Fold each of these.
Amino acid sequence: MDNGASFDPQPGTIHGTVPPAIQHLTTEILAEEGQYQVLARWDTPRVVKGVSFSLRLNVEAEDGSDRLVSSAGTPDTQYRFRGLTSGRYTLSVRAVNSQGQQGDPASTQFSISAPVAPSFIELTPGYFQITATPRQAVYDPTVQYEFWFSDARITDIHQVENAARYLGTALYWIAASVNIRPGRDYYFYIRAVNQVGKSAFVEATGQASNDAAG
């Protein structure tokens, strides 16, 4: 066994062993001095001697068509693309055996772009505290959130960083302090962040509770 893949001799064809399928294809975006790297990882249900992997990376052009950015081959189950710029990409990976036969490709899409703003912010009152939980319209595992807090509403959203207090970056935040009192409004300013950039702020207003039982 090797990372859960079995060395299981499979029935061959007249040309050799059938290339294995690609599974669990993932991508991770990494910042690199104004440009970006993407680390692709995958595995196969079985390990076949002499198999390598063929990769094709396309980017969506302005007219909606796909343009080839890079093609590569590797004997490993991961590969790093460097020097990428913003855009929407499609990565395809397929196994190739020693006779040049190709297996079925697996594909995944990813975007190198700043995230969109949260579509909804759930504010849950607690005992002298408020829990803020942002939501995205489409789930993105690369996104976290910056939480900013103010006792008073900030009329100019562009002044949030000057007028509000930064709480931290996380998937949700519990605002709790001796200064939070039930019966009055408090203001959260929240934006989505990822390796590429930050979204616009979204405002949410909530109150704490004085019910110790929840």
Note: Helices lie at 160-163.
Amino acid sequence: MKAKDVARLSALRAILSATTNAAKTATPIRTDTQLVALLRKTAKANQEAVEEARAAGRQDIVDKEEAQIRILEEYAAQSGVQTVAGDELRSLVQAVVSEVAATGVDKAKQTGEAMKKLNAKGGPLDGKDVDRAEVAKLVKELTA
């Protein structure tokens, strides 16, 4: 890069490396949603590196990793992929859980059925950037 933006170059190299590695697995990155999930996963790993560097007293590494996190979040925000979180996510999950409960599905199987409906092709969360762990937590909370 001619601008000599070392942090951005490092972030781009990390993204390219992660996508290349993902291409060699059973689930290569094929959609924008998958790429945004990869960006968020990489940013989360960098956040853990920041915490470790702080504990070790390495401010230089903290600064470098935080710059990379900002760049990754910038790319994720500009991706055009809709992010679902907070109240919007809760209302979507609540609607699906109510729908599953109304069908008379056994209480023990409601969590699995709700997750299937939420994540199915054409479902409420299809093609959207969401934290799947948060979705699972909400479904378990609402079906309990």
Note: The chain has a mean pLDDT of 86.
Amino acid sequence: MERGGRPADGAGLAEYRRKRDFDRTREPEGAPRRKRRRGRGEPVFVVQHHIARREHYDFRLEVDGVLKSWAVPKGPSTDPSERRLAVPTEDHPLDYAEFEGTIPAGEYGGGTVLLWDTGTYTNTTAKKGRELTMAEGLAHGHVSFLLHGEKLSGGYALNRFRGGDGEEAWLLVKEKDAAADPRTDPVASRPESVRTGRVLTEIADDDGRTLHGRPRGSGGGR
């Protein structure tokens, strides 16, 4: 339905840039939107497996010219009965949807990043029969969408709630549809990068760095 609409202004990525030293990290600083436009069509989503201080999966949706982002400790599921915690993080530039590699130790998020899945998505958010933009849905605390990825597909939803400490958190839930499969754990059965076919240890080795943590499917067990 929508691509995301408005270009991101400088303030949209201010927190992202403030946390990073781009003389040290290879993460993208974020080019002006006109230079990174992917052409017409549906907005993008990306899931990145990230081994930093804690292992997690970064789930990102293109909305209004940036990647809205959540850290999902257990990764996405294809089982509709699973409700995966998704902690909101700062907006990322669209260029980040293509990032795979290592972030230097001492930098924010230092560790190894693997491009686990990517593709486009279709916004299906509605309220009382009226279609909502993704920005409207996020403001109301609920969005639903169809993923068209290499590993993930079909309907998903993000629902906001307040944790016991009062902090904002979300739940990432697979919808009941033909793509649902409660028998499969996609993050365990398909740990490889959709871009390079590498697993996390190979990315870390190729970059000459020590992998933090013990990721799934990395050859070292958990």
Note: Residues 10-206 form one domain.
Amino acid sequence: MVPKARSNRPGARGATRDTGQRILDSAERLVQQRGFNAFSYADIAGELGVTKASLHYHFPGKGELGEALITRYAERFARALEEIESNGGDAAAKLTEYANLYAGALRGQRMCLCGMLAAEYQTLPEPVRSAVVAFFDHNEDWLESVLDKGRRDNTLAFVGSPRDTARMIIGGLEGAMLVARPYGDLARFQSAATTLVASLATKRERGDWMKSAALNPTRPTRSRPRRQPTT
């Protein structure tokens, strides 16, 4: 978000941008760990050692803060999806990399930002609601494309349309994160996600894939090195 006013002092603009990013970093962690309605500007101000007036300077209200959070998160997630595409591999490998994005968040004792916001959807400001829906729509679009290609090249087999299956994958991964959280057990999520992806592979592909593509949030499923995105 562009500040309401700009200073002509040397370094002021950089400092302002840095403070804005620190605010977003703190707010993102709080949402992923507590939820949107469970934190206040006072929590962020206390954590960062800044005044609440400084927070309002960057983000006049919590709605603006929430919208900026999702925009940044969605852009980061979109870059991760582009990187998965650039890594190549078949559809099952892409789905595994996709699931690893969720595993990486859970490993950091966090939940998917938009998954947490979706749980509070009815109480969110309208701009935040729209941004949450847009995030899931983009993910469904990407998964639909991967699933369609996998069906056409006979590496994936599933009942129903690619769009419906994309929705099942997102719902399955978000739900697996939620259930694994109280157990504090990443392996619980990994097992559920691996089984979900394996259930979509054709019988011909499933055996070899299960041996080589187990979910691991710290390494890629392809040989090409890839930095693990932060979700």
Note: Residues 1-13, 218-230 have pLDDT under 50 and may be disordered.
